[in-house]
Request: fold
Amino acid sequence: MKYLSIAVSLLLLCACSMPLLALAQQEAAPSGFRHGPGGPGALGLPPFLHGIDLSEAQQDKIFAATYAQAPLLREQEKIAFKAHEQLRALAASSAYDDAQASALANTAAQAMAKISLQHARLEQQLLAVLTAAQRQQVQQRHDSRQGPRDLRRSE
Reply:
């Protein structure tokens, strides 16, 4: 039973670590404005906005909204990372305590949930900046990506 609990905790840890890994890889990339599919600075945009032609005013609003959330995201990322780190240490420890492991896993999960909620809020804010035609373009691109991954690869 103890080993099953450790295995479940490690699986949860791995699942919750994936978004943090993606963020770490993003931050490891050289900073500054880069040219992406959407033009200058497009790599700093959320993926759903790549390729959308934005006015300078829209870019400014998107920049402000994106960077306004940075402190909250950073705080939650630190909480999740520390909880994951402590959970890994506890799993490797001879003094493993299932209740403590569960509490750490819950702390990490709550932090990840707050990050996900903040991302959803930001997406809603950014969609509000777009014109009706731009929102329709985003929706069309979203709809075209729906369906099983295998079908998308064969297109």
In short: The radius of gyration is 19 Å. The first strand starts at residue 35 and ends at 36.
